[in-house]
Amino acid sequence: MSITKKRKEAIAKIDREKSYSLLDSAKLVKEITYTKFDASVDLSIRLGVDPKKANQMVRGTVSLPHGIGKTVSVLALVTPDKEEEARQAGADYVGLDDYINKIQGGWTDVDVIITMPSIMPKIGRLGRILGPRGLMPNPKSGTVTDDIKDAVTSVKAGKIDFKVDKYGIINTTIGRVSFPQDKLFENAVELLHTINRLKPSAAKGAYFRSLHISSTMSPGIKIDSKTVPGI
Q1: pLDDT digits (tens, 9 = 90+) for 37-66
Q2: I want to staple 33 with a disulfide (CB 3.0 to 4.6 A). Which of 20, 131, 167, 215 is the partner?
């Protein structure tokens, strides 16, 4: 597969032998992005954990101080007495049985699904559809709760959930290329601090094995984890 001229130019701006500071990498990722649209900026974090072991799973949520620059669509699967609460909080879709039927028919055109503990038995059978798409509600991510207002408001304000994959890597968006350097930096710091607090006691050796930042279609930039304040 041939490399485009723009990608060659982007690669030429990166010293592959160098690990950049988090602040410098937040600036550089903006400079090497050549898409015509407002590309997402992502962090790839390789951790020193074995996800196959239950006591080394890393999963959580974080409210990024500047959001991710994307309007997140929320479906609230709630009982009738909670519908108005969900709408007032900003949920884009509110209901129960009708939406369960739509999902069974293949509809998954939302970013986050929030529901209540009492409704989970109804939603369990949707796991084969929602699971592979990362849409299955989960108490650990704050998407199964009786406090529907707080859950919807938090997601709309920039709360994201993350989970280490089978290779020990967390991949997640921290903003858009249009974000100023300092906002990308502050979002990244908040995420990394949260992950650091979740370090399993069973994890041995270096916890942050490698950090890379990239945007949609851009090459990755290696980050020196020692330049992240507070970890």
Answers
A1: 999 999 999 999 999 999 999 998 898 999
A2: 215
